[in-house]
Each structure stands twice: as structure tokens, then as C-alpha cells.
Amino acid sequence: MNNWADKIKKNFTYRSKSDLTDECEINLDAIAGQLLLQQKAELAADNGLPMQSATKPDSTELEVQSYFANRMASINRIVNEGLCLRNTSITDTNLQDERALINNHTEHSKLAVKSLMVREFRVLKQLKQELDDIQQEFQAFQTTHQLVRTAHYPDSQILYFAIILLFWLLESTGNGYFFAEGSELGLLGGVGQAVIIAAINISIAFFLMGWLFRYKNHHSIWKKLAAYSCLGIYLPCLLGFNLLVAHYRGYYALQPEKAGSLAVQRFIETPWQLAEFNSWILFFMGLLFAIFAFIDGYKRDDAYPGYGKLHRRLQDLHEEYDEHRDDIVTQVEEVRQEFLAKLEDMKQAVLLKHTRLVHLVEDKQVFVTEYEQGIANFMAAANALIYRYRDINMSARKEPVPAYFEQDWRSNHAFTVRGAHDDIAVVEQQKQLFNDFPQYCQQRANEIEKLYVSFFQQLQVIDPDFTLDKVGANVGQHHA
Predict the structure, then answer these.
(1) Which of 33, 86, 92 lies closest to 389, judged by CA?
(2) What is the pLDDT of residues 113-140, one digit of tens each?
(3) CA distance 73 to 63
(4) 364: CB partners within 8 A, 6+ apart
(5) Rounded to an integer, what distance in angstroms lies between the CA atom of residue 61 and that of residue 314?
(6) Distance CA 242, CA 460 (A)
């Protein structure tokens, strides 16, 4: 049932008149003119008809009788068809159907909540256990490493990787410019070699030394000494690597084939004697970008090694748990609100159906009464036209009239009406269902609310710190 109230409002309309109204209309003058009553009465009188000895109506009276007999047969057919439809509508307007629908919706909603609890609580318990484990691991890490502060690191490391990528591109472009002099391919060939050199220079500073040097903040003396030792080893290597690259650049412009061996030999013999000014620029540029990469790599995470990574794991799992828990709460609340909305729709539908039933029964009674009045009117109208015919005939003739002129016409056809019984018992039964309906709805609503409260009680067993907040107020109102 999407919205029974809307359906009933759409389909149920009151008619100001029934199907019999037009069929029961009588215009005696029009009928008399249609049947040529006056002309036929005068013609019969001129011929002395009907004779005084006649015992049966003449053809004109039979024509009037036939006309109204057909009219009565027509409204009899209409009333039987109309009563069949009305009785069907009265039978279909049964409030017991709404009770069954509410019961089905109640069971469906309860099953939805129970299934959700079984399925989602299992996942939620697993996430809560993982969250508790990582929380204990985090607290143990703080205790072991004597950390009383929270972790400090950027919200996103994308910026730091973007910066190091920019450094790499700038150094590759700069190196490529200086190496272009000795390359057959010019700047393009110089950049090809410069990319590799820049990648080695920057990646070691960013990924390796940025990570290793954080151990200077470690509570362990040995790891602090190791960090400074690594820095002490790295700095001479950095100077040596960039000096070697600068020597290589000087020979690459003159003797590209032997530039590598000559550069190594010159570096060993006189490391600080660079042949050209461009080589010095290349040397200092390499040092500068390496230092920037080292600082960038150091700052991309918390200064204490491993602290930022563990804190991010804790935060991510906490967000995943909260999101999953809130999603379960939302799903249960949606089931509850959907059920309550349907319950309100059914209340409106029952009110309309009860009103519709009363009007259907009243309409049926009026319909039957209209039919009975129509039959009586047709009989009276038929006799009125017959006596009009006789009066015209008597006034125009000289002979005495037949004795039957004093008799009224009675139809010999028995018109049967099917389904005209009263519906008092049906109305009383539906009235009782209507009066009991609010209590029945409240009982079904209480079943859902009870399960709703049970859901939050079980949720608080898993997560004792969870509070109902907004939904808690609603639950309190229903169970006050």
C-alpha cells in the first residue's frame, strides 16, 4: 500500500443524483403527444370504440401500458445492476483489510530491524574490537615513548609530494640546460640524463633522510645517535655526489664518451677544482634542492618516528567505526519513520473508508427508495394517461362506455429487486472495528518502539559512550 488515503480520496466521489434519476423523469404531456393519445381517442370515439360490451383495453390503452411496462423494466434492470455494484463496494469497504495490512507492515518492519541488528552489529563489534586494540596500541606507544602530546602532521601529504615533484622537475630542467651542451639531442638529451640525476639527489633526501632524521627525536639515546650519525654520513655523500655531477658536466661538454671516467678521476684528485662557472652553479643548485627536499620530507609527518602513522590509523578506524555506527542508526530510524508514516496513512484510510461505508449504505437506501418511488410514479402516470384517453373518448362518443373504464390498470409483471437488503449488521461490525482501530494501531506502534529501544540498548552494550542525542528525546516521548 503506497497511500490508501490518496487512492480513496481520488476514487470516492459523491453523486448528486443516481442512475435512476433521469430514467424516472415523467412528462405526461410529452408522452401523450408522442403516443398521439388525443387523436386516437377521438378517432376511436367516432367509430364507437371501444364497444360497450368490451371487457379488455383497446390497442391505445395497451400501447400506454406497454410504454410504461418497458420503462419499469428499464429501471428494474438499472436498479439490479446498481445494487450489484453498491453491494460489491460495501463488501470491499472492510476495515479488517487495514488491520491485516498493519499487521503485515509491523512484522515486515520488525524483521527489517532484527535482520539489520544481526548483520550490522556483527560488523560493528569487529570494528569496535579493532578500534579498542589500536587505541590500546596507541596508548602503549605513548607510554613507551613518553609522549604526552597529540600527533602533529599535515591533514594531507599531497602538498608535500607536490612540492617534491616540483623540486624534481625544476632540478631536472636546470640540469638538462647545463647538460645540453654535450648532448647530440640538445636540451632534450640533456634533460634525459638530468632526470635520473635529480631523482637520485632528491629522492634520497626526501624519502630516506627525511624519515631517518626524525629519529633524533626518539627517546632512545642510541636511535638519536644513529640519526645524527646518518646525517653526518649523508652530508659528505651529498657534497661528493653533487661535486661529482659538476665534474661530470664539465667533461660532458668536451668529451661525452669519456666524461664519466674523467669526472671520477678528477674528483679523486682535486674534488674542489671545477673547470667552469656553470659547474659551480650546477653544484650549488643540487645542494639547494637536496636540502629543500630533506626539509620537505622531514615535515611531511610527525617529528616522532611512527607516531603520526599510528595516529592516522587510529583516526581512520575511528572514523570508519563512527560512520558505520551512524549508518546503522540512520537505517533503523528510517525503518521506524517509514512504519509510523504508513501507520498514519492507514489511519486516514480507515477514517475515509468508514465515512465511505456510511455514505455507500445511505446511497443504497436512497437508491432503493428512488426505485420504489419510480415504480409507483410510473403506475400513477400510466393510469393518468389511460384516464385522459378515456375522458377524451367519453366526451367525443354518443354510446355508453365499457364497464372497465372505471377500473385502474395494474401491471401483471412482477419486477424482482435483488440485493435490496439493509446493511445494519455490516455497519455495526465496521463501526466496532473503526472504534477499536486507534488502540490496535497503538499496540502495533508500541511493538516497533519496543524493538527500537532494544536496538539502542544493544548498541550501548557495544559502545557504552554512545548517547541517543536527538533520537533519545523521541524515544522518551513515546515511552513516557
Answers:
(1) 33
(2) 889 888 888 999 999 899 999 999 989 9
(3) 15
(4) 83, 86, 87, 90, 423
(5) 106
(6) 62
